[in-house]
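User: These chains co-purify. Model them together.
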Amino acid sequence: MINVGKIKQYSNVLERPLSKGKQEVSLSAFAFLFSELVQYNQTQVDNITELERRLEDAGYAVGARILELLCHREKGNRRETRLLGILSFVHSTVWKVLFGKSKVLSLGGVGCMGTSRLRVGSCNVGSLMGKSIELVKILQKRKVSIALGGYLVVEVRSVNDRLMAIKLVVGGLTFNVVNAYAPHAGLDEEVKRHFWEDLDEVADSLEKGTEHEDEYMISEKELLVNRFISIPKDMGAFNCGAFVAGIVRGVLENAGFPAVVTAHFVPVEGQHRPRTTILIKFAEEVLRREATLG
Amino acid sequence: MAAIYSLYVINKSGGLIFCKDYGSAGKMDTNDSLRLASLWHSMHAISQQLSPVNGCAGIELLQADTFDLHCFQSLTGTKFFVVCEPGALHMESLLKYIYELYTDYVLKNPFYEMEMPIRCELFDINLSQAVQKDRVALLGR
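Assistant: Joint model of the two components:
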């Protein structure tokens, strides 16, 4: 018997499942399309602010749709209602679907309160399977206060086999822990170079928060839409990331979190190319509601 | 290093749109560069007509006593050529790579006008990296 692939025919479009479909699109095709989008909008405007606004509007429509789609596909028809929830949705789920990777978000108003002493140890737990009592004894002896439990893991990011970053919240403080496994001397120069570049990127993305409580930032070394774009000198601080800012605004506003979202170039010391920061400033009512919810 | 003297890009009508000198050898002023570009464009076209073989794509390599000139023409008629030391290796793959950079950082840039001089920061950065890079690495591509 010939095994025919099970392709079910749905007569009604509404009965068709929301399949994930093909996850990849050609970067070149996207780059050309985006380039045409910018060129077309350039002919319609007479100043840069207007161009930025038009790009943002184009992104807004994408954001509104992506929220709808992802809520159905990933969240089982549920929508985030809390501020941190929606932010984490934006920088992990949305970012991953759009750009193929998740991004670290820096929160506003994160500061150091009081002083405390933290002892950090590293231990290869994998080889201690079934010896948890011994592990606890060692930890007590070495005065390691947090080993497993007692803290909240906000984010785990595994960059590759050699690099991993976790974000912990311990007693009101935020810790970023980056675990790096450096390549040994016998390996290729290429592997080493890659490792240091990745490490740089991880370290770069862990930024300090701002002084404002209502501002959040998503920082990206090289935004996908900016990959092939060189801004001419006479256009000043214009950033095509306005399109991505529009997407973020589209997601947030349609989820009930009105915000002003802007994209900025931020120069990095010792690097030729500036990085792009997407600044999210929430409306007053959002923060007030968040405070009421507690 | 110093195997490459200079790099030129000319558009399909023979206008010079990009020119860069590496090292001081064989340096020319702007007028001479423009002249060389249009001269090369015509010679390339004539060679296609004169060739006894059918389907000739034009001159690919010109060898002189003091330099070699390697030329690569894209399907749309944009020509890339490098002037280099006699006997320098892997120039074809370098030219192909430069063409790749051109399609990426020039053609996908919304602020570039077709057939106009190339002024793209990212193209310059990636180009200088490619030229400095070890030739062996390019060959391995």
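The first strand of chain B starts at residue 4 and ends at 10.
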